[in-house]
Sequence to fold (251 residues):
Amino acid sequence: MNLRMTLATTTRVLGQLRHDHRSVALILVVPALLLTAVYFLYENESLPPGVPRTFDRVGLMMLAIFPFVVMFLVTSITMLRERTSGTLERLLTTPIHKADLLFGYALAFSIMAALQSLVATAVAYWIFNLDIQGSPGLVVLIAVINAVLGVALGLLCSAFARTEFQAVQFMPVVVVPQILLCGLFVARQDMNQVLDSISGVLPLTFSVDALKEIAGNAEATSALWQDALVMGLTVVGVLVLASLTLRRQTR
Fold:
């Protein structure tokens, strides 16, 4: 992989995003708005004294899930447009390698994901008073890794789509099962054995487990770092796989 080519791709993608105000709004604003909706869903709940708010549990998980979903959509559609417009084919006639291209995209969207996570986390803590044991910095770290995972999966899935509608259709296949089985709605120990086994290999499960570690511990635990490491390795593996399946154009 050529670092100069990767950084050139990153610069080009960020330049394009700077002029695409709708995509910037989708990336930076929508997760915070969705988090606001989650807060008001539980605003009027009645709880005995000393019982944690439901928002403190659900809202924390949404800080990772919303960026994951948004970045998957933005990335898959953006890469598909590059291919259908012929931009990708022209780029690949230059010395740039597929891996340089995809890692450049990943780096550009990772920067946007970091900004997105900072905005959403700031809203959660400063406006809605999210109350957990762990550090906000660790929450941002997991949220960023999760968003980059959405980027990687979006790049991979875009290789198998011919239209933007087909790219969106990967949502029920790739994203929704992970949200349902990650342990957010039903604890993994309460699932049947088959679903629990499937959940144990899904990347989003490790993200939820990491956030639970942050919520319950004032200091970073070894389990947290293990979950973060698995997520990071998954991102790299998916990006490598995406570079192997990337096509120059859509026929």
Notes: Residues 35 and 59 are 7 Å apart (CA to CA). The mean pLDDT is 84. The first helix runs from residue 3 to 18.
